[in-house]
Amino acid sequence: MKEQIDIKDIIKNKNLEIKFEPVASVIKQSIIGFQASSNGCTIGGKQISMCKLLELAKSEDMTIELDRLYREKAVESFSKIYYENREMLLFLNISASIITRFIGSGIIMELINAFKLNPQNVVLEIVEDKIEDVESIKKFINFYRSHGFIVSLSDIGYGLANLDKISYVEPDIIKISGAITNNIDLDYYKQEVFKALVNLSKNIGALVIGDGIETKEEALTVMELGADMIEGRFFGLSTINEEFVYRVREKLKSLSIEYKTYMIYKTNLEKSRYRLYENIINEVLRELSNSSENEFDSKLKRVIDRCDVFECIYVLDENGIQVTDTFTYCKNMISQKALIFYPAKQGTDHSLKKYYYFLRNMALNKYVTEPYVSLATGNLCITISSVFKNIDGREYILCIDFNPKYIDL
User: What's the structural domain count of the chain?
Assistant: First the structure.
């Protein structure tokens, strides 16, 4: 109970347990650093959570003291392996509310100097959703960055948390939240969100850490999607010592081998997918090439009836005008979707669509789009467009939409 736990006594006796989570690069096959966190303390054999300690500290107006104790214990523990591993980074959580209340104290710098750590080995990770005093945050970041510290933003992708901070924090490292990486190997939409955040990070010159990684499959997927580093319970959570470092390195070696095998498999899978596309398209093109325009609809209907990997199939003339109906196996869309998404009709102008104007303007015979939301079905799709001539010698463009989620190889 609250009255049995003396937060002042806990802070005075520095009774706080620190655990470390590895941050690793699979490509480099190396441990980049360790994220320091506290899981609370033990009193009389009973574990007191960090959340409880924070609650007690707030009630006694000792939040800053508890926060400083966390950093002191983290730096002290990390220093035990730092001198033999000077390339490693220490990731320290910094609460935004603490920054705004105590900016300019210089206590972090004093702490790092006291344990003879190089500031370039310390990553200050800005946490907390709400930041009210933006100017104080900027001053804090500019001061510590000028002394060599690295700045990171955590929980990117968790709701709208921290997306607005990117512009003024200008982070060196971005951590994509476990809310995105959890089961990412099974979720196409999470994969697309992750890729978008990676692209954002690259455009502003920030490295990407896939956070919250708990399984091998999640690790392999985020690496494939562009993460520079990974962090999470997959590598373990422990007090820091050389034995723990050794175990992490061994697991990292094994993961690196798995990643190489995985990428070979994915490359072969991609080749198989495009061979499938190629075979299907060539089969359809053969039928259409031996037909007149007024036979196209009947040919496409037979194709869609026997080939359910298509979202939609239709034909354009050389000017991008649709000369057939749109044939699709998506027959029963919910009414709300049907008001927004519906197949294009004969006579629709597609001349501003990428699958038309890139094909024509770049003098290509075939074009494959990036995944996008189909206006015909509301599903994710890719469109493959291909030029052909019919039996009368007139030029047309066959367009086939595939849903990348449901292609069964």
Answer: 2
